[in-house]
UniProtKB/TrEMBL annotation:
This is Glycoside hydrolase family 1 protein. The keyword Hydrolase applies. Keywords: Glycosidase, Hydrolase. Pfam families: Glyco_hydro_1 (PF00232). It comes from Candidatus Enterococcus moelleringii. InterPro entries: GH, GH_1_N_CS, Glyco_hydro_1, Glyco_hydro_1_AS. One of its GO terms (molecular function) is hydrolase activity. SUPFAM superfamilies: (Trans)glycosidases (SSF51445). It comes from the Bacteria. The active site is at E376.
Length: 478
């Protein structure tokens, strides 16, 4: 068998995209709650006049309802168990625990919800894989403190992480600190709470925010290790191979520079425990000042590195600095590049590259020699219910089959791979567009982009396919 015994097959969601109940039981607002739905979402948030205000007369806010996982999690987890999940990656909504973020005492109702969610997973033998912060920092911290560029947020996060580990560490072995921490290179509003009005266009603020997150991540590792000796705490990032558009050395170097900035910088610090020597080059490239550090920061980073790398993989990108007029911009997961003429694309323009996953796994393993965990992967597509009431998503099965085959090949190459939790194992609100029509799940949720629908759950063809994949430890997909 190519996949190890105990391989963590499962699925992944995020609180702000599936829970809904955005103001229930004492929950405060998060940055995600202030992000409007629709394909204009990122352009609205990126506008100079955006100030985190919620404008229901002007926009819709699908995150407020999500798929009502908050009230229907038992039904959903039962479906995950029917598929045979070994793990379920989910996030804890920071503002459900600390509504504003800077309180001294947590919201007990929020903690009780995650008690129930974790216990429901364990009831079925499903390992919880918990992301501490997944694009959902308390809105108050973004508005009143300026997001992660403010050092005080480290203290608030430390208090939050301490509560989580004290409460759940004995039940939860697998953790990740910040979801897609490197996404701030292109769009800092999600992970750093930075917008134009609070200095997002100045990369000095982004690098400073990253430093504070690195310190916070190291503190989380330190706290978690004090609670449980076998705990596993990872970092999490977007990873995408960035190919040179052609063999021109200029494009080769541009690809290397982009790879360092986007794919490696944040993991270099969290896995190795120190800043890379190319930081000086990055700061020059992005016209930024070096982040300010406090006494003890470097020692903290060095002594509290992560145990594994969790990453999302959806696509690859091509980099072209020499003949931009000969190439088309490509859509992607919070990254920039050009279209690769050798690849097909999804309905949303994301390029499909299964071999790129094998390349990614080998690159990360060769660089770090720590276990790897694919915690997001999948195909966003429009699903239709046919006249027989079925959802025949062969396109999704084909996508995932090819990616699992690439995982198998990488394991045969020698990569230490922990698990695979495809994104949006149940349909949820897309982060990039706020749409329900961009579906990833094995389970269909009856809800449209305008918020209409019964929220009823329905199995897709891929449900039974993935069930067989798990039952055979991946062999059914090869």
């Amino acid at each position: 068998m190519s996949f190890k015994e105990g391989f963590l097959w499962g699925g992944a969601t995020a609180a702000n995209q599936c829970e809904g109940a955005y103001d229930a039981d004492g929950k405060g607002l998060s940055v995600a709650d202030a992000m409007p739905g629709g394909r204009q979402r990122f352009s609205v948030i990126s506008a100079p006049e955006f100030n985190w205000e919620i404008e229901p007369d002007k926009y819709t806010y699908p995150n407020h309802v999500g798929i009502d996982h908050y009230h229907r999690f038992k039904e959903d987890i039962a479906l995950f168990a029917e598929m045979g999940f070994k793990s379920y990656r989910f996030s804890i909504a920071w503002s459900r625990i600390f509504p504003k973020g800077d309180e001294e005492t947590p919201n007990e109702k929020g903690l009780e919800f995650y008690d129930q969610l974790i216990d429901e997973c364990l009831k079925y033998g499903i390992e919880p894989v918990v992301t501490i912060s997944h694009y959902e920092m308390p809105l108050y911290l973004a508005k009143e403190y300026g997001g992660w560029k403010n050092r005080q947020v480290v203290d608030f996060f430390e208090r939050y992480a301490t509560i989580l580990f004290e409460r759940y560490a004995q039940k939860v072995k697998y953790w990740m600190t910040f979801n897609e921490i490197n996404s701030a290179m292109e769009f800092p509003a999600l992970s750093q709470g930075l917008i134009v009005a609070t200095g997002s266009e100045d990369y000095t603020n982004r690098f400073q925010a990253w430093h504070h997150q690195f310190v916070a991540s190291a503190l989380a590792v330190k706290i978690g290790k004090s609670q449980r000796s076998d705990i596993q705490i990872g970092c999490m990032q977007i990873y995408a191979p960035l190919y040179a558009f052609d063999c021109n050395p200029v494009n080769q170097f541009a690809s290397q520079l982009k790879q360092r900035a986007f794919d490696y910088f944040t993991s270099d610090v969290q896995v190795r425990g120190y800043y890379p020597t190319y930081l000086k080059q990055l700061l020059k490239e992005y016209d930024a000042e070096a982040p300010k550090m406090e006494e003890g920061d470097e020692e903290l980073l060095r002594e509290n590195t992560v145990d594994y790398i969790g990453f999302s993989y959806y696509m690859s990108m091509a980099i072209n600095e020499t003949s931009a007029e000969d190439s088309d911009p490509a859509a992607g997961n919070l990254m920039e590049g050009v279209r690769n003429p050798f690849l097909e694309s999804s309905e949303w323009g994301w390029q499909i590259d299964p071999l790129g996953l094998r390349i990614s796994l080998n690159d990360l393993w060769d660089r770090y020699q720590v276990p790897l965990f694919i915690v997001e992967n999948g195909l966003g597509a429009k699903d239709e219910i046919n006249k027989n009431g079925e959802i025949i998503d062969d396109y999704r099965i084909d996508y995932m089959q090819k990616h699992i085959a690439a995982m198998h090949d990488a394991v045969e190459d020698g990569v230490d791979l922990m698990g695979y939790t495809p994104w949006g194992c149940i349909d949820l609100v897309a982060a990039s567009t706020g749409e329900m029509s961009k579906r990833y799940g094995f389970i269909y949720v009856d809800l449209d982009d305008e918020g209409n629908g019964t929220l009823d759950r329905k199995k897709k063809k891929s449900f039974d396919w993935y069930k067989e994949v798990i039952a055979t430890n991946g062999e059914a997909s090869l």
